[in-house]
Each structure stands twice: as structure tokens, then as C-alpha cells.
Amino acid sequence: MRSTKATGAIERLNTRAGTRQYSMVRTAAELFYLVQRTPDNPAEKLCEPLPLDEFVTFVNAYGPQKPKRVSKLDVAFEKQLLKKP
Length: 85
Description:
Structural class: alpha+beta
Helix content: 40-55%
Order of helices and strands: HEEEHH
Number of helices: 3
Strand content: 5-15%
Distance between the termini: 54 Å
Oligomer: single chain
Number of strands: 3
């Protein structure tokens, strides 16, 4: 099983967090779990071992999220929707 999806999810999480403190561990049973490195604890386990797709979903939902991009047209459309009864 390839772990490229999991590695990409970890990279996105580290980018969103602005640090390089998150990493993943892959078990012999092809399961993944998220660990956080801190000065007090070099490998704090943040989740139970999960299959690849569940792990990627967990990591994508974990930590700070990127704000949704909103264009001027989206804002104008929202204003029009609020005006209608």
C-alpha cells in the first residue's frame, strides 16, 4: 500500500499549523497514526491506528483549517440573497 496520500496530508497539516511538529507512523499492519513532537514528549500519539483513507480524513480535519476563499462576486450574491424576503 502506498502512503503518498498520508504523507501529503501530513505536509498540509504542518503547513496549516506553521510548524513541522506533526508526523505519521506506519505500523506493520499497514495502519497509520498521527504523532506530535513537543519538547516535553518527543512522540505524543494523537489517534489510534487507522487505515489509509480514514487516516487522511482525520489528518485533514485535525488542527487549524484554511479559511475559505470568498470572491467579491460571492459577497455580492450573498447580499442579494439576504435582501429577498
